[in-house]
Design a protein that fits this description.
The structure is a single chain. The protein has 35 helices and 18 strands.
């Protein structure tokens, strides 16, 4: 079996360790109790969710703790199957649970509601020996001689686990920490903030550090006489940020037998394929980074448990561990996953959010529990009350950061104001500037935050860039600054109160902006913040981008009914777009869904974009009138965007005017309303012409003439509209106005059909005006196209031969070559017979009868034609001809009405 397969088998077995199989305790009708676990910075929490209050007892005996309940129950211990810090093992008992503890672990228990909570506290590192105060000194003086917690933390021994904030116990009794309001929700363990223990400060610096804890007011300590020295810089607002203290150097493990690694919670397990393991005592002496190393026995192999560092990787020389403040390792680190573990036989690319320890920071914001932060707040308030005025500012600055970590932005601003006062040297410190900007952003005061973030004293990258990006997300929801995206891993190292507020909108903005990789990484590392509706929306966008349509649709649908207005509106929009893209709905339904989500946003850029998209889909669906109405409403709600909407409004107007379902009078009104927004366009001219023809068909020539006259000045084809205006004037019986319109049409050089219509209109106008000769001249110039009206005009002048000749030219083009003659052909044939008969052309009548009589069906037309074209000798009597012509005209009128 290869080394890789052996390591994989060992890792799989290791992942299965950590607790017994749930559900083996059967006690009749005993209730089933869910067990939840959570890994916190200073303790591991185990929660038993009882449906009602139940008596219990917890007894610790060395490295064993026994939990007994007053009622029988079936414990679902599946959550204990994963390795947990401070817990070596757990076994159900008849009355409850027995825990095997790690060395030095202490048990704390409490109830939250009906749940029983058991906390396994981290081992307490031995405190450094404090300098003994002179014998007989008051207790208050001894308390004042001790360094403040920030200095004591700097002198903690190297055995403290990296990334943990342990509050030292003050000499004076501090108020007890308030218990948390509710046990933490089950979910992925928070990512540890890998911060190595700082190196001890030099003796001279320690001696020079001013004490912070002051004696009680009842017995003040005598003030030391002032020393003559140069003015010193103002004290810092809070202690030095992480990364500025000395840190342990990177180390390489002195063995090469480990073939795989598993990251679980805040520890890393190195797996060996045999039972041989390195000397644990020797490892712990190598470096503070290995002070917490432990050996884990498992079937068929051995594993070494190490505290998680910011960089642990494997290269050709072996395993390398790098502290949080050190350079990135050359090898490929272990990749943590959303569930807090990863198997790496050949370590892959590290998680994008795992690099927060190497990002420059200004603020002391650690991933600590609310209980820890509340205890620190109480401690700071007590210390501030007891401290002299000269030392309060630093404590107030630390209090401001603690309040910010709890999400209490206004309180943090007030504390910072007291800490900085009006001293410009304090106010302009980068740390104070960023703290002020962060508190302003959380308090919703964007303008104040902008001013602080624009200060040149703040660096362009790191934590300052992160908060600039937060301001950008609050302002317009956009992600543009690359420095902001590079600083995103810091969010995963912030306290839960901040992470839960900042991460969801940022993840949504990343997803909306197309940064799917960053959005997915942020949600995966977000802990409880990943359950926020906006985080779930961001994850749905990631699923959609990956082509997982069905899961994305399901995620959007679940958010569509969420009470979070922002997430619901976003989900409704994407749900409509994805359904449209996959053919589940059409453009009209998608537009309706988008319009339904518009009220969720009030006057911001997202509302404007949603309105524009809905109008676009309305136009695509052919609902131009609704699209235009929506854009008109949008222009009124967003005056600054009205100019940009004009082009889309013109397109919607043209589409509505071209809609055959829009009544002509309504189209005329719409055209008059939108005339100021329209520009010369051939499509507009075509729409005006169609509306005018529909008005003419409704026998409304006056309305058609008004429409055409108003459209001509802004037309790209004024000649064509002038010809139609002339036709409307002729329909009104105003030949003079028709001729005037034709003179404005640009002459007789109009091409195609409009040129022919112009000539016919001019001939008709001249005829109505009494200029028959001019009308005949115009029609003769048209050739075959003007033959039919020319025949009628010559017949009116009783030029029967000329009329017959013109009509014969027209019939050569219009008569069908074979088959029965239709109504139009029979009418032309009857008129031709009349013209020949009136002109006395019997030969022409005979030829006409011989050619067309066989193609005439029985009926009135056939009888009239037979009467006119008979072979009777002598001339046709005028009374008879008039009678036949009158009958033919009556039939023509009847046929015309039928059309």
């Amino acid at each position: 079996m290869s080394r890789t397969r052996v390591a994989a088998w060992l890792c799989a077995g290791l992942l299965a360790l950590g607790g017994p199989v749930a559900g083996q305790d059967v006690r009749g009708a005993a209730p089933s109790i869910r067990v939840r676990t959570g890994i916190h910075p200073t303790f591991t929490r185990i929660v038993f969710d009882w449906p009602e209050n139940v008596p219990y007892s917890v007894v610790q005996n060395g490295e064993t703790a026994s939990l007994q309940f007053g009622r029988a129950a079936r414990l679902d211990t599946s959550a204990l199957a994963r390795p947990l810090r401070n817990l070596a093992g757990a076994e159900p008992s008849a009355e409850g649970m027995v825990f095997a503890l790690r060395p030095g672990v202490r048990v704390r228990h409490l109830t939250v509601g009906t749940s029983v909570v058991v906390d396994l506290l981290d081992p307490v590192a031995p405190a450094a020996a404090a300098p003994r105060a002179p014998q007989g000194a008051p207790a208050a003086v001894q308390a004042a001689a001790e360094p403040p917690p920030s200095h004591r933390a700097a002198t903690q021994p190297a055995a403290a686990a990296p990334g943990k904030h342990a509050l030292p116990t003050p000499v004076a009794a501090a108020p007890p920490a308030a218990p948390p309001a509710a046990p933490p929700a089950p979910g992925p363990a928070p990512m540890p903030v890998a911060a190595p223990p700082p190196a001890p400060a030099p003796a001279s610096a320690t001696a020079a550090a001013p004490p912070v804890l002051a004696p009680p007011v009842s017995s003040p300590a005598p003030a030391a006489p002032p020393m003559a020295q140069a003015p010193a810089a103002p004290p810092p607002i809070v202690a030095a940020p992480p990364g500025t203290e000395a840190a342990p150097a990177p180390i390489r493990l002195p063995f090469s037998g480990a073939t795989a690694a598993v990251m679980r919670g805040d520890s890393v397990l190195l797996v060996f394929e045999d039972a041989t393991a390195p000397d644990i005592a020797r490892l712990r002496r190598i470096s503070p980074l290995l002070a917490g190393a432990e050996i884990v026995e498992m079937p068929g192999g051995t594993a070494l448990r190490l505290p998680a560092a910011s960089g642990i990787s494997r290269d050709a020389q072996g395993w390398l561990i790098t502290p949080a403040t050190g350079p990135k390792p050359r090898g490929t680190p272990i990749d943590p996953t959303r569930l807090g573990n990863a198997l790496s036989l050949l370590p892959d690319a590290r998680h994008p959010m795992a690099a927060h320890a190497s990002i420059p920071r200004l603020l002391h914001l650690r991933d600590e529990s609310d209980a820890t932060l509340l205890a620190r707040r109480q401690d700071l308030l007590a210390r501030i009350a007891a401290a002299p005025a000269a030392t309060r500012d630093s404590l107030r600055g630390e209090l401001a950061e603690t309040l910010l970590a709890l999400g209490l932005a206004p309180e943090a601003q007030a504390a910072l104001k007291l800490a900085t006062g009006d001293d410009p040297r304090r106010v302009q410190q980068p740390q104070a500037l960023l703290l002020s900007a962060a508190a302003s952003l959380l308090a919703g005061r964007l303008e104040e935050a902008r001013e602080a973030l624009a200060n040149p004293a703040l660096p362009a990258e790191g934590e300052a860039a992160l908060w600039r990006g937060v301001a950008g997300v609050q302002e317009d929801g956009r992600i543009a600054d690359p420095a902001f995206r590079a600083a995103l891993p810091l969010l995963t190292a912030y306290p839960a109160a901040l992470r839960n507020r900042l991460l969801p909108p940022i993840a949504a903005a990343l997803a909306e902006g197309g940064a799917m990789r960053d959005a997915a990484a942020l949600v995966e590392a977000g802990g409880e913040a990943s359950n926020h509706p906006l985080s779930r929306f961001a994850w749905a966008r990631v699923l959609e981008a990956r082509g997982e349509v069905e899961p994305a649709l399901l995620a959007y649908s679940s958010l569509a009914g969420n009470r979070d207005r922002d997430a619901r509106a976003r989900a409704l929009g994407r749900l409509a777009e994805l359904r449209l893209a996959t053919g589940r709905i059409d453009a009209a339904a998608a537009a309706e869904a988008l319009e339904a989500s518009i009220p969720a946003w009030r006057g911001d850029q997202r509302e404007l974009q949603r309105r524009q998209r809905a109008a676009e889909l309305r136009s695509r669906a052919g609902q131009h009138g609704q699209a235009l109405a929506l854009m008109q409403d949008t222009a009124g709600a967003f005056p600054e965007a009205a100019e940009g909407l004009r082009a889309a409004m013109r397109g919607a107007t043209l589409g509505a005017l071209a809609d055959a379902a829009l009544p002509p009078l309504e189209a005329t009104r719409l055209l008059a309303e939108q005339r100021a927004n329209l520009v010369p366009d051939p499509a507009l001219d075509a729409a005006v012409a169609r509306i005018a023809e529909r008005l003419m068909a409704m026998e409304l020539p006056a309305q058609a003439a008004t429409l055409l006259r108003e459209a001509m000045p802004a037309s790209t084809d004024p000649g064509g509209l002038a010809v139609r205006l002339a036709e409307a004037r002729l329909a009104e019986g105003d030949a003079t106005a028709a001729l005037e319109a034709l003179r404005n049409s640009g002459g007789a050089a109009l091409p195609g059909e409009i040129g022919l219509r112009r000539a016919l209109a001019e001939a008709n106008a001249r005829r109505q005006a009494g200029d028959r000769a001019g009308a005949i001249g115009v029609l003769r110039a048209l050739g075959p196209d003007g033959a039919a009206p020319l025949a009628e005009l010559l017949a009116e002048a009783q030029d029967w031969t000329g009329a017959a000749t013109a009509l014969a030219e027209h019939m050569r083009r219009s008569m069908p070559a074979e088959g029965p003659l239709d109504d139009a052909a029979r009418r032309d044939l009857l008129r031709m017979a009349a013209f020949l008969a009136l002109g006395g052309d019997q030969a022409g009548l005979d030829a006409l009868r011989d050619r067309y009589a066989p193609r005439l069906p029985p009926g009135a037309f056939t009888e009239a034609f037979a009467a006119l074209a008979s072979r009777s000798s002598g001339a046709l009597t005028l009374p008879r001809l008039r009678e036949e012509i009158a009958g033919a005209r009556a039939l023509q009128n009847q046929a015309r009405t039928l059309r």
